[in-house]
Structure formats: structure tokens, C-alpha cells
Write a structure and sequence with these properties.
3-stranded parallel beta sheet; 44% helix; mainly alpha; 9 helices
Length: 198
């Protein structure tokens, strides 16, 4: 038996029972990635979880994660979920209806505000406040694009202070530190409890 035949045979076997409810699982849009994440050909994401995608600019992170929202838009198990796109980077300019379907285009909402007047935070602490409020308001699938665009409030204040100092011909002092990592670490710990309630 060739390696290809062995792989096909293995994929045809039913997955082992794990006690996980797969009925609300969503595909990543890639069979290979689905298999890597869950061992199932058609499911890569599970509800009540959060996923962090890391990659260089232009590597396809937005397109890949928007596919998850498109999958939710056509899955009846998500008919009562809000489908939320937090476009704080303002870099996703593709035609949603064309690439991800009219169902997603009709249902897509901002994290806060309205479709005509969306609120996309740029301050990291504001992002978490709005995210927690949204999770408490009911079932939803949320995509944040991206964490890179979110800046700690202290960082913004330091930049303003540095500009003031440098405008007088002096050098700015101190470092920008690890404020963002600390805030993410503190706030992300609250996510699992909120997600389990969905």
C-alpha cells in the first residue's frame, strides 16, 4: 500500500469519540488545516474558544479568519449568533459579499456602534471592554483584525509626552516597556469564562 492510499484509508475511518460536541464546529476553509487543528476534515474551529493567528503582513490571516465568519453565516447552528468584525486595523477592504457571500455581508456587524457608524477601537483597553460587553450580550462569533493595531493607553500618552519633550530639542527618556503584553495577559484570562457561557 502506498503512502497516499494509507492516508486516504486513515481519513475514511470515523474519528474517535472524544466527548466534544462537533455539531457547531466550523471549517477553516482548508481540509489540511482542519485536520491539523481537530483531526476532522470539515471542522477546524469549535465554539467557546478563541484562536490567535500569527503571521507577517499579507500572509492571508484576514482572509482565512473571514472564512470562519462566512462558514458561520451559512451554518444553521449559528442563525442566532451575531457575526462581528472588529476592523480596528481598517485594512480589510475586500468586497465581503463577493468573496464570502451575501449572507455574511448582510449579517456582519461591528464590535460596537452600527453598520453605518461602526466603533472600531484603537486603544487596547477599550478593545477588551467592548469585547467583554459584546460577549455578555449574547452568542456571537467575533473576529478582531488585528491585535497589532491596538495600542495601550499608556503608550499613547508616552508618545504625546515624548513629542512635547523633543519639540524643545531634548531627548525622550525611558522605554515603551511591555505594557501591551501585560494587558493582554491580564485580560485574556477572563475570556475562557465568558466564552464558556455561550
Amino acid at each position: 500500500m502506498t503512502q497516499t492510499e494509507a492516508t486516504k484509508k486513515a481519513l475514511r475511518k470515523p474519528p474517535k469519540e472524544s466527548g466534544i460536541d462537533w455539531s457547531k464546529g466550523l471549517s477553516t476553509g482548508s481540509t489540511t488545516l482542519n485536520l491539523s487543528l481537530t483531526g476532522r476534515t470539515g471542522i477546524g474551529y469549535l465554539p467557546c474558544h478563541y484562536y490567535l493567528f500569527v503571521g507577517s503582513s499579507g500572509s492571508g490571516k484576514t482572509f482565512l479568519t473571514m472564512t470562519a465568519l462566512a462558514e458561520a453565516a451559512i451554518n444553521p447552528a449559528y442563525d442566532k449568533h451575531d457575526l462581528v468584525f472588529e476592523n480596528c486595523e481598517n485594512g480589510a477592504l475586500m468586497d465581503v459579499a463577493r468573496y464570502f457571500g451575501p449572507k455574511l455581508a448582510d449579517r456582519l456587524e461591528p464590535l460596537a456602534g452600527t453598520a453605518s457608524k461602526p466603533i472600531h477601537p484603537t486603544i487596547l483597553e477599550d478593545h477588551y471592554d467592548l469585547l467583554f460587553d459584546r460577549l455578555k450580550s449574547g452568542p456571537c462569533v467575533i473576529l478582531t483584525d488585528s491585535m497589532d493595531a491596538l495600542t495601550p493607553r499608556a503608550f499613547v500618552k508616552k508618545i504625546a509626552a515624548d513629542r512635547k519633550v523633543m519639540s524643545k530639542g531634548d531627548d525622550a527618556k525611558g522605554s515603551y516597556g511591555t505594557e501591551k503584553a501585560r494587558i493582554n495577559s491580564d485580560r485574556m484570562r477572563k475570556l475562557p469564562d465568558l466564552l464558556r457561557k455561550h
